[in-house]
Amino acid sequence: MSILKATGNDLDSLAELLDLYRVFYQQKSNINGAKEFIKDRLSNEESVIFIAFDENNPIGFVQLYPSFSSVSLKRTWILNDLYVMESVRGKGFGEKLIKKAISFAADTGAKGILLETNVENITAQKLYEKIGFTKEKNYFYFFSI
């Protein structure tokens, strides 16, 4: 397995993976929309994406968005998307993708990585805790449109 920082050359593979990820979250398949979305993120340098390959086959990705902490005067990263193809789950690819994201965050001098997951996604929660993430107990998160 290899994990590489994604470039425009990975656009087709990433679009397929993003489409599968979205379908996992009960969204309609939209491969063209996924491709355009990824293209915009990469060309505008609005996110960092690492893509995992198993024997040259793309099998997963992790996408990080930059943010900043005024209090700590440091960059933070938001781990917004993590996906591993269903056919290869349970083989450690998700853990390796997250560890790559953590290493990248450390290399960029970031304060840390923030992520969120559905309350019902127990499998992901166990993985995050295994790697060293902790559930936030001191803050509430609010959302508005």
UniProtKB/TrEMBL annotation:
Coiled coil: none annotated. InterPro entries: Acyl_CoA_acyltransferase, GNAT_dom. It comes from the Bacteria. Residues 1-145 form the N-acetyltransferase domain. Gene3D superfamilies: 3.40.630.30. This is Ribosomal protein S18 acetylase RimI-like enzyme. It comes from Sporosarcina psychrophila (Bacillus psychrophilus).
